[in-house]
C-alpha cells in the first residue's frame, strides 16, 4: 500500500538522500573490522547476526507487508519484548517503516525499544512521531549538539524525564490518567467519574515561561492548589525531549481558572524564573484574504464548505455605501480548534485556489475577552454599519435621547459613543441595536476596553513571522489575483521611500504565540481612556484591502521594490506587507492602537 502524500509530509518524507544519519559511522566501522578480520559481513538480505533467534508468528506478516528483513527483525524483537504488539501498529506506521531507509528505520526502532512507553496509549502514533523526529534531526545535521557549529558529534545525553515515583503517586491519589505522545504529555481529561461535556470557554489557562527541564510531576502539584484540574497538557519538543516552555491547564469551572491566574501569574517557579499565567480561549477563526470582492456570505460559505470540514460561520465586512459585497477578505469560524487547524493547514499550502485566486490564510488575531467586572463599568458604545449620512452630529442627536453624551467619534463606518452614565448607555444599546439609521441597520454593543499595548505588539510580530514563513514555503509569491482584487496602478513613477506605510511601528514582548492556540473575543469595538490618548491614530487594516500588483512578465528587468522600515526591520512593500496588514482581527481595527 502506497503512503498518502499527506502522511508522507507529516513524517518528513520529502526525500531520502541518506542511508545513515550524519555522524553514524557504522558502515565505516564494519568495513574496518572486516579488513582486520574481526567480523564477517553477512549478505545484505541477512536479517540478524543470529538467524537462530526464534521469531514470533507475526514476523512473516511483516515480510509479506514488504518490510526489509533487518527492519522486520528489529520490529519482531520489540514484539518479543512485550513493549509492542503487531495489533498496535496501523497501516500508516507500517507504510512509514517500509519507505524509511533501512539503517534509519533500525535506529528508530532501537530508540523506540529503549523508550519508556508506560504512559503511551497510542504506540503506533508514537512510533510515527519518533520517525518524524529522527528525520528532522538527520536533516538538521544529525546529533550535533549545541555549539558544535553543525559538526556531527556523538548523541547527546537524553533529557532527564519526570520523577516516575512522583507521577505514580499522583496518579494513584487522583485516579487520573497520563497519556504521552512525542508532542505532549496529557494528564487527565476527563477526571474520574466526570459526567457531562468538557468545561466550556474561560476554563482553560495558558502557562508560559516554564523551565524547559520541568515536567507535569511539578506542575500538577502547583496548579491543583487553585482548583480541580480537568486536564493538563504540557507541550513537548521531540527534538530535545524537553518541554516547549508552555502548557495548557483546564479547570472544571471559570472561577477556578480565574483563581489560577491570580495565584500563579508571575509565580517564581525556580530562582529567577517566573511563570506567565492567563486565561486562554481556543482559536476557532481563520482570516482569509485575497477573495473576490463580488462574493457574498452565502457564496463564501458554500465554496469553503467544499474545501474544509466543520465550517460553522462566515464573517464579512462591507461598507453600507459600497456596492461591493466584501472588502477582499473574510473570517471563517469552525466548530473546534482542531477543525480550524486542519482547515488552515489545507488552505495554506498554496495549492488550493478559490475562484482562481491564491488566498492568504492565517489565524485571526487574538483578542482577550475582558472580564465581567471590567465590562460592568463600560459607559461607551460601539456602533457599526454606519453610512456616510450618519455624521457625528446626527449620532449624538440620536443617542443623547437616552442620556448625556460626552463625546462621539466616527471612523469610516463605525463610531464610539461616550455616555456620562452607564445606565444611559445600556438603555441606548437595547433600544437602538438593529434599528435603521441613515438607510442601514446599525449594530450597537458595549465597547471593549483596549487590550494591553504590549500584547498588540506581540500579536503583530507573531503575524509577521507567520506570513514570512508562508511566503518562504510558497516560494515567495502568488499567482495572478482576481481582477476585482487588483490595486490601481501607481502614477508618476515609484513611490518615495518610506511613504504611505499603513502599518505603525511596534515592538515585541517575550511571548511567542506560534503554538497557534490563542483565542479572542467577538467583534465588538474597543476604546481608549482617558480622553482618547493616542486613540485616533486609526489606520484601518481592512477598509480598502487590496493585494499587491502581480509582477509584469517579460524580459525587461523589473525595478527594485521600494522598502519600508516596519516593526524594527526592513520589509519589501508589496504582497507581504499587504498580507500582514490585512491578516489582523477586526478587534484591532476597533481597539485603540
TrEMBL record:
Q: From start to end residue, where is composition biased (Gly residues)?
A: 139-148
The record's GO CC annotations read: cytoplasm
Instruction: List the GO molecular function terms.
Output: RNA binding
Spell out the subcellular localization from the entry.
Cytoplasm
Q: Where are the stretches annotated Disordered?
A: 137-163
Pfam families reported for this sequence: hnRNP_Q_AcD, RRM_1
Keywords, comma-separated and alphabetical: Cytoplasm, Repeat, RNA-binding
- Entries under Gene3D superfamilies matching the protein: 3.30.70.330
Q: Where is the RRM domain?
A: 203-282, 284-366, 379-449
Q: Which domain of life is it from?
A: Eukaryota
SMART domains in UniProt: RRM (SM00360)
Q: Which InterPro entries does the entry mention?
A: hnRNP_Q_AcD, HnRNP_R/Q_splicing_fac, Nucleotide-bd_a/b_plait_sf, RBD_domain_sf, RRM_dom
- PANTHER family cross-referenced by the UniProt entry: HETEROGENEOUS NUCLEAR RIBONUCLEOPROTEIN (PTHR21245)
> Record's NCBIfam families?
hnRNP-R-Q (TIGR01648)
Q: What is this protein called?
A: RRM domain-containing protein
Q: Which organism is it from?
A: Cimex lectularius (Bed bug)
